[in-house]
Amino acid sequence: MHETPELRPADPVELGAGVVKRSTRLADGRELIYYDDPDTALGPDRAVDARILDPRPETASMRLDVLTGDWITVASNRQNRVMMPGVDADPLAPQTPENPSEVPSRYDVAVFENRSPAFGPALAQATGDAPAAANAPRGLDDLDALGLGRTRTATGRCEVVCFSPDHAGSFGTQTVTRARTVIEAWADRTAALSQLPGIEQVFPFENRGEAIGVTLPHPHGQIYAYPYVTPRTRRVLESIDRTAPELFQHILDEEQGSERVVLRGEHWTAFVPFAARWPLEVHVMPHRHVPDLAETTPAERDELAPLYLRLLRGVDALYDTPTPYIAAWHQAPVNVGRDAVRLHLQLTSPRRAADKLKFLAGSEAAMGAWATEVTPELGAQRLRDAIARAEEAAE
C-alpha cells in the first residue's frame, strides 16, 4: 500500500440531520460509503484504496431444507474470517502504512460491502461490473416451491457498518450525534438495498460480545439484504393473517398498558414482550405504523438516538461487565406485508445472571420449544432500575 495515497473527492450527498454521504469504491470494486457527522472535523477528500487484493469470492450457494422450507446458505469463504485482532491489525480501523485495513481514510461512520459475505458478493444488476449469477432465485414463488435437492445462488448483499474509527466499543458507547448518524446510515442503506433487483428483505443488526460469537471488537454492525423473506418474518405474516392486519398496533397498545414498559417517548416505546424467550429481551417499537427505517421521519430518528442509547447503557448497567447481546432491526419485506409488518428492534441477550449464560440446548435448539428462567415483568423492572443507575452515574 502507498504510504501517501492520492486523494480524491467523493461526490457528497446531503442527508437528514446534517449528515453528509460520500461514496467510493475499494480496490476490488466493493462499494464503500462514508457518512460524516454534522459536526465532523473531517475534510471532503478521501484516500484511494491502493491495496492489491485478491479477486472477490464466488457467490455462495443456498440449499433448500425440504422439511421446513428454509433456505440454508453454504458460504465456505467465511471459514477464514479474522478472529479478534489487536489494534495494529484491526480491519475496520482507518488504514495506516502498517495496517492495510478495509477503510482507506479516517471516518465518522463507514459502510462497505463485506469481504466474506453470506449473500453476494453483489448483484450484477446493481453494479454492472460482474456477470449475472447462474441459478439465481426466480422470485418468491420459486423460493416457496418444495423439492428434494433444490439449490439456488445466494444472491444478495452483506454490508459492514462501522460506528466509529475507534478499535473498541459498541453502539451504546457512541455519542447522541454519532448514534443519529448511524441511524441515518441505516435508513439510507435500507432504501438503497431495497431497490436492488432480487432483494426481498433488509436486516440491520449488531452482534455485541464474544459470548455472541463476535469476531471483531471494533464497534460495528452489519446489514444483510436477503433474496428471500426470512423464516421469522414468514411466521409473523402467518400470525397477522390469522389475527388482524393491525396486530402490531394491538401488541403495542397491550404493552403500553402493562408493567413491562421500560422507556417511553413521544414516538417510541421500549418494552419487555409478554412472551419473552430470552432472560434479557426488550423490543423498541414506533407508535405509528412504519415498515422500515427508511420511512421513519426526522423527528422519529431524532428521538430514537438518545432513547436507544439510554436503553443500551441500562443493559450494560445490569452487571459489572458489558452485556453480550444481539440487536436486530426487524423490517417489513420489500414486496409483501408492508402495510402489516411494523418496524421494531428486538434486543436479546443469553445472559441470565452475572456469571451465567442461557445455552440453547435440546428443547430450544432442536424443537423450538422455549422455557425462560426470568419473568418478563421482573426483567422489565431490572432494566428500569439499571437505566436509572446508569443515568445517575452519568450525572
UniProtKB/TrEMBL annotation:
Co-factor(s): Zn(2+)
UniProt entry keywords in alphabetical sequence: Carbohydrate metabolism, Galactose metabolism, Metal-binding, Nucleotidyltransferase, Transferase, Zinc
Assigned EC number: 2.7.7.12
Catalytic reactions on record: alpha-D-galactose 1-phosphate + UDP-alpha-D-glucose = alpha-D-glucose 1-phosphate + UDP-alpha-D-galactose
Involved pathway(s): Carbohydrate metabolism; galactose metabolism
Similarity comment: Belongs to the galactose-1-phosphate uridylyltransferase type 1 family.
Protein name: Galactose-1-phosphate uridylyltransferase
Lineage of the species this protein comes from: Bacteria, Bacillati, Actinomycetota, Actinomycetes, Micrococcales
